């Protein structure tokens, strides 16, 4: 029964783990930024070609999509997705596979995701005579940059002809030890909008503030005032975060009041109605504060990714299948996160399950978070990453 498929997948995974690690190390050494993943896309194409898998290209420029059909009768389809872009970070790891591209690094694990999906492709090719249904493999560019590669692929029809009955995606998670995975049903990750505010005053000598309209003081009032939007205008039961990570004056010195100050921040929530209302409250609050102090402002809110919701039935069954593959003790329940992911676009279209792959190892001190200069993984994670994706997909398609 299920043990037969389990045995097939695990044996195939063992055969391909070395190539998965090689793929990951190559990708890690040659990272490319969002919408610039030309070499990455060509590498994926070459690997699929070597496996005898047909594919299509041109998805959001550098994306690649392939399908593998099982040899047994079956018309159902499941999609598996991996993102492939890197971040503008200078890597500080001292490893043989360190990035060779200055200022660019796979600091979010997309190299792991891509290598794991290539491994899944190899596994599926190995055992294709033993399963029913079709697996669509989506190698997606530009997860890290608006408007998000997922939204572009959907517009191009990646979820059509036919529509998959569900989509699975995995993401590295350093807090989980390698060899474990984490699941969360329902609302999992937040929407994410970018906020850019330019406060305009009248600069002058710091010793003569009465002759100026001080945008520094406006910025202080705006930063304080906007926190009341999330603490007093929002339903306390609705998760939301408003954070400003950058403040920069145009000109200015220790004794010079500048003409302008620019604020850059992010707003995140898990409620679409409040999301729209919050945008208006942000605009209203900033305009009123600036007007009260004699200044003006420009406000630009770039609407980003929607919230990510994991389909209850698909996630529940995936968690059950993961327990079959790994053992119940290695399947961890997760809490909601206020981070964002463009996989959310898929979750708005078809049933989706986005789960976390454990990549940490406290004993080996592999604990650096994603988006840091020292992020790395325990490569033992590859012992389960490809095989688990395949097993979840095939079990969902009814294979035993």
Give a brief outline of the structure.
The chain has helices spanning 2-29, 38-50, 110-127, 149-156, 215-233, 272-292, 312-326, 343-347, 382-396, and strands at residues 55-59, 63-69, 72-83, 132-140, 167-177, 181-183, 186-189, 193-200, 204-205, 240-250, 256-257, 260-269, 296-302, 308-310, 331-333, 352-360. With 400 residues, it is an alpha/beta fold. Helix 3 links the parallel strand 3 (72-83) and strand 4 (132-140).
The CATH C-level name of the largest domain is: Alpha Beta
The largest β sheet comes out as: 8 strands, mixed
What portion of residues is helical? Answer: 25-40%
> What is the CATH topology descriptor of the largest domain?
Aminopeptidase
The H/E string reads HHEEEHEHEEEEEHEEEHEEHEHEH
Number of strands: 16
Low-confidence stretches: none
Question: What is the tally of helical segments?
Answer: 9
How far apart lie the N and C ends?
Answer: 5 Å
Superfamily at the CATH H level of the largest domain?
Zn peptidases
Radius of gyration: 24 Å
Strand ordering within the main sheet: 1-2-4-3-5-16-6-15
* Share of residues in strands: 25-35%
Estimate the global geometry from the Cα principal axes: elongated
Mean pLDDT: 97
CATH architecture of the largest domain: 3-Layer(aba) Sandwich
Structural class: alpha/beta
What is the total domain count?
2
What do these coordinates show?
With 400 residues, the protein is of the alpha/beta class. It has 2 domains: 2-189 and 307-396, Aminopeptidase (3-Layer(aba) Sandwich), CATH 3.40.630; 193-302, Alpha-Beta Plaits. It is 36% helix and 26% strand. Strands 1-2-4-3-5-16-6-15 form an 8-stranded mixed beta sheet. α1 crosses α3, α5 (215-233) runs antiparallel to α6 and α7 crosses α9 (382-396). The longest helix is centred in the first third of the chain and has 28 residues, at 2-29. The termini are close together. The mean pLDDT is 97.
């Amino acid at each position: 029964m299920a043990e037969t498929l389990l045995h097939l997948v695990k044996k195939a995974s063992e055969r391909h783990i070395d190539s998965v690690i090689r793929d990951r190390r190559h990708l890690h050494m040659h990272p490319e930024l969002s919408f610039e993943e030309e070499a990455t896309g060509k590498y994926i194409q070459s690997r699929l070609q070597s496996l005898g898998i047909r594919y299509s290209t041109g998805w959001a420029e550098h994306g690649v999509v392939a399908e593998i059909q099982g040899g047994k009768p079956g018309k159902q389809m499941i999609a598996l997705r991996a993102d492939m872009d890197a971040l503008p970070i200078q890597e500080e790891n001292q490893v043989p596979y360190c990035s060779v591209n200055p200022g660019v690094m796979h600091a979010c694990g997309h190299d792991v995701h891509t290598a794991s999906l290539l491994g899944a492709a190899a596994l599926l090719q190995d055992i294709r005579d033993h399963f029913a249904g079709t697996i669509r493999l989506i190698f997606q560019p530009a997860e890290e940059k608006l408007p998000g590669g997922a939204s572009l692929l959907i517009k191009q029809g990646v979820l059509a002809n036919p529509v998959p009955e569900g989509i699975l995606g995995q993401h590295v998670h350093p807090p989980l030890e390698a060899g474990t995975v984490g699941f969360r049903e329902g609302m999992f990750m937040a929407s994410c909008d970018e906020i850019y505010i330019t406060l305009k005053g009248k600069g002058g000598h710091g010793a003569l503030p009465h002759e100026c309209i001080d945008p520094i003081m406006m910025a202080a009032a705006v930063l304080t005032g906007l926190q009341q939007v999330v603490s007093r205008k929002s339903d306390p039961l609705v998760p939301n975060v408003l954070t400003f990570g950058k403040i920069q004056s145009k000109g200015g010195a220790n004794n010079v009041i500048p003409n302008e100050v620019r604020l850059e921040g992010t707003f995140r929530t898990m409620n679409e109605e409040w999301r729209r209302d919050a945008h208006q409250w942000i605009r209203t609050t900033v305009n009123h504060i600036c007007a009260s102090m004699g200044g003006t402002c420009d406000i630009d809110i770039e609407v980003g990714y929607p919230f990510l919701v994991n389909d209850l039935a698909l996630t529940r069954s995936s968690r059950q299948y993961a327990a079959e593959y790994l053992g119940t003790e290695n399947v961890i329940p997760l809490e909601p996160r206020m981070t964002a992911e463009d996989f959310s676009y898929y979750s708005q279209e078809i049933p989706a399950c986005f789960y976390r792959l454990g990549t940490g190892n406290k004993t080996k001190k592999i604990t650096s978070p994603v988006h840091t200069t020292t992020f790395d993984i325990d490569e033992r994670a590859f012992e389960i990453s490809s095989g688990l994706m395949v097993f979840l997909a095939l079990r969902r398609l009814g294979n035993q």
